[in-house]
User: Fold 1-deoxy-D-xylulose 5-phosphate reductoisomerase from Fictibacillus macauensis ZFHKF-1.
Amino acid sequence: MKSISLLGATGSIGIQTLDVIEAHPEHFVLTALSFGKNVDKGIEIIRKFKPALVAVSSKEDAVKLRTLFGNEVSFVYGQEGLIEVALHPSVDVVVNAVMGSVGLHPTLQAIAAGKQIALANKETLVTAGHLVMEAARAHNVAVLPVDSEHSAIFQCLNGERSEDVERLILTASGGSFREYTRPQLEGVTVEQALNHPNWSMGAKITIDSATMMNKGLEVIEAHWLFQMPYEKIDVVLHKESIIHSMVEYVDGSTIAHLGNPDMRVPIQYALTYPDRLHIPRAKKLNLWEYGQLHFAKMDYDRFTCLKLAYEAGKRGGTMTTVLNAANEAAVQLFLEGKISFLAIEAFIEKALETHDLIERPSLEEITKVDEETRRYVQSLL
Ligand code: NDP
Ligand code: MG
Assistant:
């Protein structure tokens, strides 16, 4: 029986993680959870799963929930609350499914407390990958990927020697605008951008998929998780999202991971590794229903954000902190209707250009650069 703490329970990954937990009551128990502002959904989840501890964003919501649930459940709030949920003493595994670099501090503290991490929150590795992976090594803690591409690569690597790996190949669906030319991208709306062809996800990652920044964040995530130089990480367009990623070995063998697009699979694998469990209502992968799978070379001029991510990753240090914070801030402005779709990449590029690199930043420096970058992006309005 694994005791789980779930950060971001009301989100897209959070809800699917609850599905996995509910399907296997003999394997998992939900001990603690957090959500942000979606109190209605949160109440529904608390009634169903009866966790011991819950963190919410605001003090007002915590007070309201205490009145509603009495002393059946403990409620905490804010950044400290999130950390408390990650550190609950009886928890074995922390599933980090919050959106954004707000997930960094709880992850670092959970690692220091020896908790295993199931990581969906890619912004954590992008903003401070060296700190997270150093802490994981120091405390002998496993950071298991939830992101489908990284779960795929993790399974394709299957313990092989890293010197035998020629390339990691991440697949990209192309997002909402995969058939659009650059001039066609100029007038696109928030509604169009939120309409992803293959996956139903939170708003921010859906926009990241449309700009291809999602793949950029994933390249950086792969660099840290698998300790691969950027020269050995490649991206291929694959519109069906059936191959979730591949590993090419020095002898020319390429091992791919296939499956229908269903995030419950990588979520559950991060919780059951090295074992596997049945997934209820999972659709069988019948390749004949597809007939063909398609692949295309990535165009880095068409998808500028991916190019920016590689450049920031190769420069290292705080460049990826800036990349992530500028992207979070710019995507938020786009979702609020304040900037155009193409301004997202323009703002990120400006933030990267004006930043003075810190090569091995401390946690304090990362937090400071993150805040400064968000302010800088706001000032570009
Ligand atoms: P959602 O936006 O659907 O959910 C985010 C969750 O985090 C919600 O529970 C939200 O609470 C909570 N949250 C957001 N901001 C804060 C904050 N400042 N403080 C505390 N809690 C907060 O996102 P997704 O589930 O789509 O994505 C989560 C993470 O997983 C992201 O890093 C994403 O890149 C990654 N990921 C997602 C995939 C997907 O299929 N969705 C696939 C692979 C990776 P509330 O809504 O209550 O305010
Ligand atoms: Mg992914």
